[in-house]
Design a protein that fits this description.
Elements (H helix, E strand, L loop, with lengths): L1 H13 L6 H44 E4 L1 H4 L15 E6 L4 H4 L2 H12 L4 E6 L8 H4 L6 E2 L10 E5 L5 E5 L14 H9 L11 E4 L10 E2 L10
Parallel strand pairs: 2-3, 4-8
Antiparallel strand pairs: 1-7, 2-5, 5-6
Length: about 230
């Protein structure tokens, strides 16, 4: 097949072949070498591209996919919610510029608006400044992380309290770099609390895409009074 391809290429490029046996074989060999070289380079580039993709995936996994270790940091009964009890309360713990945050932004804005219409109260924490935040996060009051939670495992993450002020959920939004209504861990939690059911997911580890909070951007509430401030 390659020989026919080579002869066809020669006929197209230099016209009908008129050569001795050795000359024709040499010309065919040259054409075949060019075909093999071209295919070899294509295959090599494809392998390099695949290797880069594998390395990038491995680097992302190694750097950002880690355990959200709830038992090591959280004592839910010791931390009051941002607002007075009476409504389900949610705190978005955020760090802009984090690759993990980008895949959560649309969902976080949408769920905040949707559940706020059902009486859920929202605040934000982690990054204090509004630089790089979505419009939905910018308008939320800021809640300094209590001193008991000073070693927060990472962002994006969320804390949810029931209407009685008891911590119901603390952890990541989902187990991946993106979050939707279907993949969200927190969607069924908020829905259950609004329906009056009890939820307590505060002591199991979870693996998710997380970035460390910038120490220069975090406000720690040493009084544990859990105040909220204007954005």
């Amino acid at each position: 097949m390659l020989i026919h391809t080579a002869f066809a290429a020669l006929n197209q490029s230099i016209g009908p072949l008129v050569c001795g046996k050795m000359q024709c074989y040499f010309l065919v060999w040259m054409v075949l070498m060019r075909i093999w070289l071209r295919r070899g380079l294509t295959l090599l580039l494809l392998l390099i591209w695949l290797a880069v993709l594998v390395w990038a995936y491995w680097w992302f996994e190694a750097r950002y996919v880690k355990s959200f270790e709830r038992p090591a940091f959280f004592q839910g009964e010791a931390v009051s919610p941002p607002f007075a009890p009476g409504h389900v309360q949610v705190v978005h713990v955020w760090q802009s510029g984090c690759p993990c945050s980008a895949g959560h932004e649309a969902y976080v804005d949408e769920m905040t608006q949707r559940f706020a219409q059902q009486g859920v109260e929202f605040a934000r924490s982690g990054q204090r400044s509004t630089d790089g935040l979505t419009d939905g996060l910018k308008v939320l009051p800021y809640w300094p992380i209590p001193e008991l939670w000073a070693n927060w495992p990472g962002a994006p993450a969320i804390a949810i309290w029931d209407a009685e002020g008891q911590l119901a959920y603390v952890g990541p939004y989902s187990d991946g770099a993106h979050c939707t209504t279907d993949s969200s861990f927190v969607e069924p939690v908020v829905q259950a609390l609004l329906a009056g059911r009890k939820v307590a997911i505060t002591r199991q580890d979870a693996v998710a895409c997380l970035c460390d909070l910038d120490p220069g951007e975090i406000a720690i509430d040493e009084s544990n009074s859990s105040p909220v401030s204007e954005p």
